[in-house]
Design brief:
Layout: H1 3-22, H2 29-47, H3 55-73, H4 80-100, E1 105-110, H5 118-128, E2 133-137, E3 142-146, E4 149-153, H6 173-176, E5 180-183, E6 194-196, H7 202-205, E7 212-214, E8 244-247, H8 250-258, E9 266-268, H9 272-281, H10 289-295, E10 299-305, H11 314-325, H12 327-330, E11 334-340, H13 344-351, H14 356-367, E12 376-378, H15 385-390, E13 393-396, H16 400-405, E14 411-414, E15 431-432, H17 440-447, H18 461-465, H19 473-487
Parallel strand pairs: 1-2, 1-5, 5-7, 7-8, 8-9, 10-11, 10-13, 11-12, 13-14, 14-15
Antiparallel strand pairs: 3-4, 3-6
Helix pairs in contact: 1-2, 1-4, 2-3, 3-4, 5-9, 5-19, 9-19
Length: 488
Amino acid sequence: MFRSMKTRIFDLLDTVSDMVEEMRTLSDRRGAISDCLGAIEAISAQLEEEETAPGRTVDKLIHLQAMFKDLYAEGAFVNDKSVALLRKLVRDLQTTLRVEIKPKLNVVFFPYKASMWDSLESVYEAAANDPDCVAQVVPIPYYQLSQDGAVPAYEGELFPAHIPVTHFNEYSLEAEQPDIIFVHNIYDQYNTLTRVHEHFFTSNLKQYTDMLVYVPYHVSSFVPPTESDSRLAYDIPGIKNIDKVILVNEFLKQGALRQGVPKEKLLVLGSPKFDALVKAMNNEIDYPIEWVERIQGKRVYLINTPVLMFANNLFNRLETLINFLNIPTVDPNSIVIWRPHPLTQASIKQYSPFFMEYYVRLTSSIRNRDPLYRHIILDESADYIPALKAADVIISNVGSLLRSFLLTEKKVLFWGSSMPEGSLIPNNAFYYAFDEQEPWFDLIKKFSEGYDPLAENRKGMAKKAYVNTDGSSGAKVYQTIKERVLKK
């Protein structure tokens, strides 16, 4: 039995108890007794579904049912003695039920994009390994938005093979009434690139659970937000439906408080995304077959481009990207992995539709190993871990992939000329692509010769900005949420 069902049974018994106390003063006692019998029948039907029958609870329920039937047959004659006996029977039943039936937590995960599943996976693993929990993963449908309209999408088939997936058509919120719902998208109808199906808006989910938990699909910036910073987005309408928000550090909590999020909603427990990388760093992983020979013995440069890479200032950014894609002409013993954000095409359709034809042609040429791009690997997979592990250097701005890469303590060639002001990561931890004293093409040559004077500065970078970077975030998220639910 799930905890939510046990709670509903106790609610029914509380209603029966209230009716018993009012029985002598009611004008329609037969109707009240009939209602009590209906509640008992509903409880009995639920108990019959248990794998192991709770014998003592069933016996006491039968005894209570028999007394109500006797009263009904006797014309609903009720006196102090019968009320006292009914009161005792109800209390005994509640006590026995509380002790005999140990409920399980009913937990469901509603991811929408497979590439963002890593933000929930270690939380799911903790739930799946808990004998007191039944956990389900239900990838939900969504729409890709553009100026031409909304295109339905579903990625259930893209999730890792070891994750048992339930199709959303086979999952009923009404029937399940989950104790805990975990989501990584709370933007509802307010997103501009994608929109989850309206059945899975937070406003609807909240009707079926007392614990709706938001675990962001990204790792938040290591640059603390200012009071006027809009990056936090905790003022969106969906936040009011959320019971708990998982944060990666204390300064984000302060930012959320400034935006009016109640303190009791905020939990600083880190990002489960780090857990996936910690596991990969400590174990061998399988690279895509088509990568193995190409990266063997090479210096690997990972280029990470953000979701709005081609939304504005497009041609300057494209020129810089093309320069970086040509790194192997500067260092012949290198190869480039380009990983565009999973929503890059969606953002182009929305903001720069005229650019789509060129983008498709460029990516197709790389994907098909055009000789001009033979030293470039296009990584459009849902799993970014192989790229992070293979990379010797990442070229990126302040994006989620860079923040995860901090754990590796490998070289960072920052897509800029200096560290953003206020950063928790010291300025001397990164190299800078547009540093006039040491530009990117000079650095590429030096890296090929073993140059790395900042190696010591990168040690422990992730811990300077985030909590629980040791692989424990997901387990702590699950355990903390479980404890909060059980205390209710």
